[in-house]
Structures are given as structure tokens and as C-alpha cells.
Amino acid sequence: MSASDALVRSGTLARPQTESEAAVAEAERRLRALLEEISTLDLEVETLASELATFSARYERELSVAFVPLERRERLVRWLQALQDELARLDAELRAPQPKVSRRKSRKKSTRSHQSEREEAEGERPWTPGATLDDDVPEPLSPPPDLASEAQTLKRLYRKLARLLHPDLARTEEEQERLHQLMIQVNLAFERADRTLLELFLVRVDQGELLEPTVSVDERLAHVEKRIAALTPVRRSLLADLDRLRATSTFRLHAEWKGRQELGRDYFQETLTELAEDAERTMRDALARMGRLDRAARELTTLKHPLTEAKPEGALRTFDPILESPLVRKGAERLERRRASSEARTLAQTLEEAVDQAPWEATLVLMAFFAERAGRPPDALSNREGWAERYAAVATAWPEAPAFEELLTRLPPPLEIGLRFQGGKVRFGLQLKSVELLAGVPIALERRTVAMLAQRVLAHLGPREQCKGCGADVFLVHLLRTRGLDELNGLVCPACGHVAKSYFLFNWSEGQEALLPFALKVGLVDEVVVKLAGKGIAFQLLPVTREALTVGALKQLFTDLYLKPYGIAAEPADLVVKAGARALKDEARVEASVLTLAIRKAGRDSLAPVLAGDEQELVALLRSRIERRFRPG
């Protein structure tokens, strides 16, 4: 006969329930319901967390690359918006009446404000595709101890009690009988899956108490309520986990993915298309903002001159908001040699490395340097379209080079899109982040690889047109056709050497003309010098033309640029070119960089009257006629 049969025959199960036993039954019902709810919640949390983690991994794998250009372009737009806000503020400051009180305190506050704005615009992106998804998806939760399998828990309790209460462990017959009766109760509790009774037996054994074969109703009720109290926080925690998962962006995206999947649509492919369209729209917005910024900077310059230079009651305007702005840096005013800082030397080193590793980035740095060193940027770099055209022309040598618009969204670290005050004007565009960095580029130009790239960049800064000499579509190269007695600028075709334009400048050169020292330094332009009565006269040529230059061609240059323009009737045959004391034949190549030019002595009677004198008289005559060119009438 089993223990359960004996219990039935004893009539204990047929006895009506007391009020306390009914309370225990109700508590055990609530406990079972709570355990079932916790098990369901735990499974739901674990399943949802696992699904979201899997979706997040796929989301990052499929879309993270597509988010990168969009995020970069959005960051660019944020920065351009900050510059627009700053220009609007400066415009308002310039138009506002000059206050009588000191502006020092308010300027300091403004500087802090705009520095924060710049850090916010250029700082880390507020949302990184993939990383954000991973951040707000918690790790799948492992079941707490209370949520282990009920069957496993019953077995664990039963085996532990069996080891502790087995009759074979008794030392006397009386103890053996008592343990036998206890094991009957344990077996009954196990068969009925009465976890509460098994736990109460185990608590008594652990506390070293002598076990009675029965457990009081009050003890049973207290134990069940204790378990309910312990499991209630677990339920709340699981509900919180579930709410947290459902509040994440990953859950919303996952739900969208499931919805489209049910409609037979490809969520990831559609999202890729949407991201590409968003990136394109954002880039168009950025380019439009750049155009507006350029115009606003020019308008601010126009506004600045009459206001900052106004002299009410004989005094200058005491406050210039442009010079105080943290977002408008000072430009390089002159070409004087600066002492290079450690940052400039670092730039020189990294620029040399970039020529090998990412020449398109080095190209952009050199373009920004030349644009600022020119004082007024060359016409080719006066707007974004010109920058894009010249960059694309230089970058044709590198198929892997990104487009100009794309590179704007991930500029090399030394560069920024910003504002600077230079030459009395507010300028907007690509620039080095600080004026101190400008000193690093000339250091880098001492390296052959950097000089070769700079030569290529400078060769693309001239006007673009079809050469009338050879018909090629070229970027004209600027040089000084001559300097010394006179100074004549020229634009020549790099393909055939045809002179497309000659012109004089009557003031200090800016723009492309100001970059001539760099063109000479990197070998884009070569120069040969002749001395006439001790006066040096230089002729600048393209290297290819310089290599093929003969003595006869050199004499023809002097005739065409000095004798004929100033009404001196003479021919190249009337001149002689010497290397030292030795006269050179017309067909000889010009190898020395400095030669002597003289008037041929033989047959002097056949020379034009103005050449009848010596070389010093010729120099004096040329000077007087050149000066006369600048006199009115």
C-alpha cells in the first residue's frame, strides 16, 4: 500500500476545509498564477531581446555603411548653420548703435556661447547607426533562480530530503521508524508536487529541528506568502524590462521591418534607397548653404567698411565684432617667414605622408594654403564650383579619390570650412584651422613628393580655355614674361607654350599672381636671367620651353618684350649673348641660368641710332620710356 493510499483511507482528505486551509489554498493558487505569469514574461523578454539583438546585428550589417555619408553630411549642415547664425549675429552687431558701456564682459559671454555652438556642431554625432541600436538593446536576461523549472526544483528538494531523512541513516529502531514516517510525508508531497511542504521540511532540517510528520496550516500559509512576496519584485522587473525593450528605437524599427515583410516588401533595400535620397538632399542643402555663406561674407565686408571706419565725433568705432568673433579667424596678411610651431612641423610631416597615402587630401590642403597665401584667392578658387572643378582635374590621377562634395564631409584634420578676416575682407571657404599651420606647408614643400604635387595643383589654378595655338582645352599657367626693367605678366598654354594673354599690373599682386614664388619654387615655372649693363632682366618660361631655349630665341624675347614695344628699331642680330667672356652662337642652347647681354660692336654704323651708344645708355633709355608709359597723356 502506498503512502497516498494510507492517507486516503485515514480520511484526512475527506475532511471539510477550515478557514485557514482555504486561505492556504487561495495563497497557493495566487502563487501558481504568479509563477505562470513570471515564466511567460521571462520567455517573452528573452525572446524579444534575442530577436532585437539579431535584428540589430543585421541592421548594422546591412545599413551602417549607408548611414556614414548621411551622418557626415548632416554634421556638415549643422556646422554651416552655426556659421550662418554667426554671420547673422555679426550683421546685427554691426548695424546696432555703438553702446557707451564697455563691451568686454558681453564679448566674453558671447565667445563662450559660440564656442559651445561650434563644439556642438562639430562634435560627435548624437546618433551613430548600429551603435545606438546596440546600446539600447539589453543583453538577453538569464532566468532568476526562482524561475527554474518547477519539475527540476521538486526533484532537487526531494533528493536533498531523501539524503537527509533516509531510514538507513537512523541509529536506533525508534529513529528509523520516525524517519520512515517522515519519508512517507516527503513522498506524498513529491507525488502531489507540493513544493511548499518540501521547502518547509527542508527549512526545518537545515535549522536542526526535530521534524514532525505534519506541517501546520499557519506555517504553510506563511511560507507561501513569503514566496509570493519574493517573486512579486521579479514580476515587476520583467515587466520593466519588457517596457524598456518596447521603448527602444530598435523595437520600432523591428516592428516596421515585420510590417513591411508581411506586405512582401524588402525593408533593408527600401531603407538603403531612402538613405541615399536623404544623403543627396542633405548634400544639396549643404551646397546651397555654402553659396549663401559666401554671399553673406561678401555683404558683411561691404557693411563693415563704412561702419567700423566711421568716426563719430572724431573717434574710431571702438568695437569690431568681426575681429572678436570666435568663428572668424585672422588670415595671413603677408608672405613673411614665420617661425614654425610644433603643430606646423607636424603638419609638414603628415602632409608628406598624405601625398603617398591619400594624395587627394594633400591636394585639398595645398589648395587651401594657396587660396590664403594669395591674399585674394585666385579666381579659380573664388567659389565652390571652381574648387570642385580644379580638385576634380587634379584628382583624375587617382581613380579611388572621393568626389569633392564627399570630401567636404570628411575633411583632413588640418582643414575646416570656416570664416576668416583677411585683407580687410571677410572670406568664407576651405581654410587651415589656424593661421599658425600655414608655416608648415613651406616646410613640406622642401620634400620632393610634396613639391611635385604642389606643382600639379598650381598648374590647375589658372583660367581654363581652348588654346588658340594648339586647340587643346587647358588650364593656362601664369608667369612673368619678364621682370627687371619691366614687369609683364602672362598666361601661357602648358601644352604648346602659346602666350594666351599678356598684361601689366599697377599695384601689389594678389590672386594667382601672388603665387608665382611658389610656382618657381616647385618647378612649375623656370627662369633665365640676362644682365644688361649690370641690370638683371629675367624671362620666365615653362620648363619644357626653357629646356629648348636657344640663344637666338632669347635675343628674340628681349627684342619682342623690350626693344619693339618701346620704339627701339633693332633686330636680334644687333645683340650678343655671352657666357662669361665667350659669345654664344644663336643656335646654342641656353644652359646657364645667368648670362650677359650686350650690343654687337662690329658694324655699329648699321645699328639704329639709339643703339649707337653703350649698354648703359640703352638701359637708361628703356627706363625712361617704361616710366613714360604710366604718365597720363
Record field, number of beta strands = 13
Average pLDDT number: 82
Shape: rod-shaped
N/C terminus separation = 142 Å
Provide a count of the helices.
21
Low-confidence stretches: 6-14, 101-147, 313-317, 603-607
Strand content: 5-15%
Kindly name the structural category: alpha+beta
Largest sheet: 5 strands, mixed
Q: Order of strands in the sheet with the most strands?
A: 10-9-13-11-12
| Range of helix content | 55-70%
Radius of gyration: 45 Å
Give your account of this protein's structure.
By secondary structure, the protein is an alpha+beta fold. Helices cover 55% and strands 11% of the residues. It has 21 helices and 13 strands. The strands form four sheets. The protein has a five-stranded mixed β-sheet. The longest helix has 77 residues, at 19-95. Residues 6-14, 101-147, 313-317 and 603-607 have low confidence and may be disordered.
Quick overview of this protein structure:
The protein is α+β, with helices and mostly antiparallel strands and 633 residues long. Helices cover 55% and strands 11% of the residues.
How do the helices and strands line up, and which of them pair or pack?
Elements: H1 3-9, H2 19-95, H3 104-122, H4 131-135, H5 150-165, H6 173-191, H7 195-206, H8 217-247, H9 249-262, H10 267-308, H11 321-324, E1 328-330, H12 342-357, H13 359-373, H14 384-395, H15 404-408, E2 415-422, E3 425-432, H16 440-444, H17 448-458, E4 464-466, E5 473-475, E6 477-482, E7 488-492, E8 499-503, H18 516-522, E9 526-532, E10 535-541, H19 543-547, H20 551-563, E11 575-579, E12 582-583, E13 594-599, H21 615-629
Parallel strand pairs: 1-2, 9-13
Antiparallel strand pairs: 2-3, 4-5, 6-7, 7-8, 9-10, 11-12, 11-13
Helix pairs in contact: 2-3, 2-8, 2-10, 5-6, 5-7, 7-8, 12-13, 13-14, 13-17, 17-18
